[in-house]
Design a protein that fits this description.
The protein is of the alpha+beta class. 38% of the residues lie in helices and 26% in strands. It contains 8 helices and 10 strands. It has a 7-stranded mixed beta sheet, sandwiched between helices. A hairpin with an 8-residue loop joins strand 2 (20-22) and strand 3 (31-34). The longest helix is centred in the C-terminal third of the chain and has 15 residues, at 138-152. The chain starts with a strand and ends with a helix. 37% of the residues are buried.
């Protein structure tokens, strides 16, 4: 399905119905609504932190920030030979950030943006859009802190759209479309707050909370 020039509210309705927009390329102005038969998700109580990643997180040789460089995170996610993020999607994400619906979690190393992830919140659902990494494990660190924030904020669904070997190594799984929509319906009915976690927790606590529930 192709669409263009759609207001943010209409695309949000698509997310609530279980579909999401993508583009063929950055230069293609069209958007297509995707409805895959199998959907990638993170079970928030089964996120996997390897021993080596746990050691890196505990060392805290990085800084984690939330919503301080949203536009830069989106640009970094699109900075690859082929990307599905086109100009209409840049505009859409920027509009949702102004509305307080889109969020980024950033990992900084030595004063530079090293990795991050961004997504959209509706009720108790977080729709992960994309992530990037410029330093070893930076995106994995971002996901670990994001999962902790979502759990603390009352979220029950972390949608990854598709699954990749990278996401699978962290515990992401695929579920059928019908099961995804059942979970989505329940999540949309739940109140949740991405900003409930007022301070960035220490690394050891992020590892501990994920380890206790894995």
């Amino acid at each position: 399905m192709s669409t263009a020039g759609i207001e943010p509210e209409r695309l949000l309705s698509a997310y609530a119905a279980g579909v999401f927009p993508m583009a063929e390329s950055r230069d293609d102005p069209r958007l297509f609504l995707m409805d895959p038969e199998r959907r990638g998700i993170f079970e928030l109580d089964r996120f996997h932190i390897s021993r080596s990643l746990a050691r890196q997180i505990r060392k805290e040789a990085f800084a984690v920030r939330v919503n301080t460089s949203f536009g830069a995170v989106v640009e970094a996610c699109a900075d690859r030979p082929q990307t599905w993020i086109n100009e209409p999607l840049f505009d859409f994400y920027a509009a949702l950030r102004r509305m307080g619906i889109a969020h980024s979690l950033e990992v900084w190393m030595e004063g530079e943006l090293a990795g991050g992830v961004f997504g959209i919140t509706l009720g108790g659902a977080f729709f992960g859009e994309s992530m990037f990494s410029r330093r070893t494990n930076a995106s994995k660190i971002a996901l670990a802190y994001l999962v902790d924030r979502l759990r603390e904020g009352g979220f029950t669904l972390f949608d990854t759209q598709f699954i990749t070997p990278h996401l699978a190594s962290l515990g992401a799984v695929e579920i059928p479309r019908a099961e995804y929509r059942r979970r989505l319906k329940r999540a949309l009915a739940r109140p949740a707050d991405f900003n409930r976690q007022r301070q960035i927790p220490p690394g050891y606590l992020v590892v501990q909370r994920n380890t206790q529930t894995s």
